[in-house]
TrEMBL record:
<keyword id="KW-0539">Nucleus</keyword>
<comment type="similarity">
    <text>Belongs to the GON7 family.</text>
</comment>
<comment type="function">
    <text>Component of the EKC/KEOPS complex that is required for the formation of a threonylcarbamoyl group on adenosine at position 37 (t(6)A37) in tRNAs that read codons beginning with adenine. The complex is probably involved in the transfer of the threonylcarbamoyl moiety of threonylcarbamoyl-AMP (TC-AMP) to the N6 group of A37. GON7 likely plays a supporting role to the catalytic subunit KAE1 in the complex. The EKC/KEOPS complex also promotes both telomere uncapping and telomere elongation. The complex is required for efficient recruitment of transcriptional coactivators.</text>
</comment>
<comment type="subunit">
    <text>Component of the EKC/KEOPS complex composed of at least BUD32, CGI121, GON7, KAE1 and PCC1; the whole complex dimerizes.</text>
</comment>
<feature type="compositionally biased region" description="Low complexity">
    <location>
        <begin position="24"/>
        <end position="33"/>
    </location>
</feature>
<protein>
    <recommendedName>
        <fullName>EKC/KEOPS complex subunit GON7</fullName>
    </recommendedName>
</protein>
<feature type="region of interest" description="Disordered">
    <location>
        <begin position="64"/>
        <end position="99"/>
    </location>
</feature>
<keyword id="KW-0819">tRNA processing</keyword>
<keyword id="KW-0010">Activator</keyword>
<dbReference type="InterPro" id="IPR014849">
    <property type="entry name" value="EKC/KEOPS_Gon7"/>
</dbReference>
<keyword id="KW-0805">Transcription regulation</keyword>
<keyword id="KW-0158">Chromosome</keyword>
<feature type="region of interest" description="Disordered">
    <location>
        <begin position="1"/>
        <end position="35"/>
    </location>
</feature>
<keyword id="KW-0779">Telomere</keyword>
<keyword id="KW-0804">Transcription</keyword>
<dbReference type="Pfam" id="PF08738">
    <property type="entry name" value="Gon7"/>
</dbReference>
């Protein structure tokens, strides 16, 4: 079985989704050029896998937003979707320190 790169999405309210990319085999004692080729293929597979996961998650978020708008405008347990989303966007990438 060839090596592969796999990511799995699992949520209580949705079916599990797996994303898999097959990687080339790497010899047990690879030369520098074989290592370089393997790492290049790995990097390309990671980028492709990330793009697939991002596309899937964006679609899931759009589905949740559509469902929330038909269910009274609430998302993620009661906060109005627009306000909560704005707060999350504003703090994206920031470390949250709780006092």
């Amino acid at each position: 079985m060839p090596p592969s790169l796999t990511a799995t999405y699992a949520a209580p309210s949705a079916p599990t989704k797996s994303f898999t990319h097959t990687l080339p085999s790497c010899p047990s004692s690879p030369s520098t050029s074989e290592k370089t080729a393997y790492l290049s293929a790995l990097r390309q597979s990671i980028a492709a896998l990330q793009a697939e996961v991002n596309e899937f998650l964006t679609a899931k978020m759009d589905e949740e937003k559509a469902g929330a708008s038909t269910a009274g405008g609430e998302l993620h347990g009661g906060a109005p979707s627009g306000r909560k989303e704005d707060e999350e966007e504003e703090g994206y990438g920031e470390e949250k320190v709780e006092e």
